[in-house]
Design goal:
Blueprint: H1 6-34, H2 64-68, H3 83-102, H4 108-128, H5 133-153, H6 157-180, H7 187-203, H8 205-228, H9 241-270
Helix pairs in contact: 1-3, 1-4, 3-4, 4-5, 4-9, 5-6, 5-7, 6-7, 7-8, 7-9, 8-9
Length: about 270
């Protein structure tokens, strides 16, 4: 009996996961458009916002349909935003990166879920300066259950405890900042911090610290650029959710080695 090459199985698995990500990304486009408007994400079927014609199945293939239609509605020829294929492609890439980071483990479903929800929340925050409770609040029980299953199957309950502590810590940090800097941060950011903090801490303290620090660093740099280019003033409100999500992604990707390197340098200088 011929044994399949493990590398081939791994590569084909990543391709399948990437395709799944493309399909999820197509659904996220619906979520990003409808959730802020209080509309159902399951009905009615997707339609052109200009002419109202329902989108045909053959025109709803992620990325490919946008290219074949040349970014135009088949019926009224209204332009179709580049955001749609970008969201689909980004979700596919994120799913593959999550698999490469956490491996084919029971932890992967939890982080795939967070990747999808985080991308949707980041774009909704950019559009509306809001982080809807309908997306943020369910992330608490869903993430907790999925990571609890991962801890149980891997007999790693310390990771679950660390995740709970990390979530509480980051929630409190954001809450204090919201109270100290009135108007600079919303309660939606605080609620999102608890979810991201728990997921990052489950991986380790390094991902939590680097992820939290990166959010403030990237958000601060973005604010400086806006002020320097006169696109915003010192008191302008800038959505922070996208930077929280991007910071969490960096913490997840490189937090552990960066934190270890920092500790090595710190301990060496202290000694």
């Amino acid at each position: 009996m011929e044994v399949l090459d493990p590398e081939w199985v791994h590569a084909s698995g990543l391709v399948v996961l990437g395709v799944v990500g493309l399909l999820i990304g197509s659904f996220l486009n619906v979520v990003i458009w409808r959730v802020p408007r209080g509309e159902s994400i399951v009905s009615p079927p997707s339609a052109c916002p200009r002419c109202g014609h329902a989108i045909r199945a053959r025109d709803n293939v992620p990325v490919v349909s946008w290219l074949l239609l040349r970014a135009r509605c088949r019926d009224c020829h209204a332009p179709i935003s580049l955001r749609y294929p970008l969201v689909e492609a980004a979700t596919g890439v994120l799913f593959v990166l999550v698999a490469l980071r956490v491996g084919w483990s029971w932890a992967m479903p939890g982080y795939l879920y967070l990747a999808a929800v985080g991308l949707a929340l980041a774009l909704i925050d950019l559009d509306t300066h809001r982080l809807p409770n309908s997306l943020v609040l369910p992330a608490y029980p869903v993430t907790a259950v999925l990571l609890a299953i991962a801890s149980w199957t891997g007999d790693d309950w310390p990771a679950m405890l660390r995740g709970l502590i990390g979530g509480v810590i980051l929630w409190l940090v954001y809450f204090v900042l919201m109270e100290v800097r009135s108007g600079g941060m919303g309660f939606g950011d605080v609620k999102l911090a608890g979810v991201l903090g728990g997921a990052l801490a489950w991986l380790g303290w390094g991902p939590l610290v680097i992820g939290a620090f990166s959010a403030f660093l990237l958000g601060g740099l973005y604010g400086v650029v806006l002020i320097a280019t006169r696109r915003a003033g010192r008191h302008s409100k800038v959505p922070f959710g996208p930077w929280m999500v991007l910071g969490a992604a960096l913490g997840m990707a490189v937090g552990a080695p960066v934190w270890t390197a920092y500790l090595d340098v710190f301990l060496a200088s202290a000694g």
